[in-house]
Amino acid sequence: MAFVDDGHPTRVTFSASSSAALLFYEREVTPPGVSAGGENDTTTMRNTQWRTKAPKQLFSLTPMTEVAKYDPAIYDEMVSMIGVNQQVTITFPDESTLVFWGWVDEFTPNALTEGTMGTANVTIIPSNQNASQEETAPVYTA
Known about the structure:
Shape: elongated
Number of strands: 11
Largest sheet: 7 strands, antiparallel
CATH topology: Elongation Factor Tu (Ef-tu), domain 3
Number of domains: 1
Helix content: under 10%
Mean pLDDT: 94
Oligomer: single chain
Radius of gyration: 19 Å
CATH architecture: Beta Barrel
CATH class: Mainly Beta
Number of helices: 2
Structural class: mainly beta
């Protein structure tokens, strides 16, 4: 078992891009989480004191974000990647990977000020379906 004792280096790559990795460098990566999607309300008129609930049957991979140093040339690459369902790979510091299908939903540069490095926020939405629109689970490889 290997715990993440230091988040450096964590990298994100996209199957639909050969140049994005050259045009922005990760500063912070927040991997996706897993969600059951909340509760199903099972309360009926037969309940006497408590509302009852049950878990949903399907899971969601939650959106992931990253903060990246960027080259302004990334704009053209982002325009071609926004909304394109593709494989996203997160490579953790121990070289293990999490691969899932999703798309870049937002690329938002942060304020540029004197004395600070330019960064941008990137939001990636997991689709959990491949290019053929088949349900596809994320794959973790140690």
